[in-house]
Every structure is written in C-alpha cells, then in structure tokens.
C-alpha cells in the first residue's frame, strides 16, 4: 500500500532526526511549513526547551510579498533573535521537507542574518 505525502515526510523526518540533535551550545533550527504560514524554532534537545522562535504570523515579521519572500523574512527574524540570545552556530533541521523553495529561502535568510550552519 502506498504511503501518503504526510507519511513519507514523517519517515524522512525520523531519519533526519536520528542523525542530528541540538544542544545549548549548538541548538537545532527546526522548520515547519503549512500551506499559508512558516514557523522556525531554535531548540535545545538536551533540556527540551525552545530558545527562540519566529513565524510568519508574528506582527514583527514583515509579511508582504510572496510566501518565499516571507520565509526569507522569518529566517532573518529567527537569526536576529538567536544573535540576541548569544547563539551564532546552529544545526539545521528541515523537518522532512525538501530543501528548496520556502525552506531554502528561510535558511538563506537565517544565513544573511548571521547564523552559521
């Protein structure tokens, strides 16, 4: 029986998460996208805490333009919050999504904002 799109993404997500994890020194930047919005969190997996978060739903994020442009703005916003928290190096978790389009735009925006990964 064929897997649905969501089931395939969850399998890929499990495979990726088996290889990477975040810590307080090197947190994990987890990305989730829905059809309308995009969300990003910096997570310390050792303590199970979210260190910083940004999304396209926040008023502080400039939400004009295409979804790809909004994703880049969310990437810059999470980078600014991370730098303010004293975090410069991260591990990127694409969360099972293919690394192109909005996910790539968010990653490029975070790099422009000063994050290293």
SSE inventory with pairings:
Elements: H1 5-17, E1 28-33, E2 38-44, E3 49-55, H2 67-84, E4 91-93, H3 102-112
Subunit structure: Part of the 50S ribosomal subunit; part of the 5S rRNA/L5/L18/L25 subcomplex. Contacts the 5S and 23S rRNAs.
Organism: Chryseobacterium salviniae
Keywords: Ribonucleoprotein, Ribosomal protein, RNA-binding, rRNA-binding
CA-based gyration radius: 14 Å
Structural class: alpha+beta
Q: Count helical runs.
A: 3
Name the poorly predicted regions: none
Strand content: 15-25%
Across the major sheet, the strand order is: 3-2-1-4
Q: Judging from the principal axes of the Cα atoms, what is the shape?
A: globular
Query: What is the terminal separation in angstroms?
Result: 38 Å
Order of helices and strands: HEEEHEH
Based on DSSP secondary structure assignment, what is the total number of beta strands?
A: 4
On the 0-100 scale, what is the average pLDDT? 93
Helix percent band? 25-40%
- Please give the largest β-sheet: 4 strands, mixed
Describe the structure concisely for a colleague.
This is Large ribosomal subunit protein uL18. With 117 residues, this protein is an alpha+beta fold.
Report on this structure.
This protein is of the alpha+beta class. Helices cover 36% and strands 20% of the residues. The protein contains 3 helices and 4 strands; from the N terminus they run H-E-E-E-H-E-H. The chain has a 4-stranded mixed β-sheet with strand order 3-2-1-4. The longest helix has 18 residues, at 67-84. The relative contact order is 0.20.
Short descriptors:
117 residues; alpha+beta; four-stranded mixed beta sheet; globular
């Amino acid at each position: 029986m064929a897997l649905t799109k969501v089931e395939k993404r969850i399998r890929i997500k499990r495979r990726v998460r088996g290889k990477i994890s975040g810590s307080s020194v090197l947190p994990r930047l987890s990305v989730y996208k829905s059809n309308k919005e995009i969300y990003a969190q910096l997570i310390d997996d050792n303590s199970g805490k979210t260190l910083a978060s940004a999304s396209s739903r926040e008023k502080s994020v400039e939400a004009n333009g295409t979804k790809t442009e909004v994703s880049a703005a969310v990437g810059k916003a999470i980078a600014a919050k991370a730098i303010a928290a004293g975090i410069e190096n991260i591990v990127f978790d694409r969360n099972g999504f293919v690394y192109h389009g909005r996910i790539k735009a968010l990653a490029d925006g975070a790099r422009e904002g000063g994050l290293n990964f």
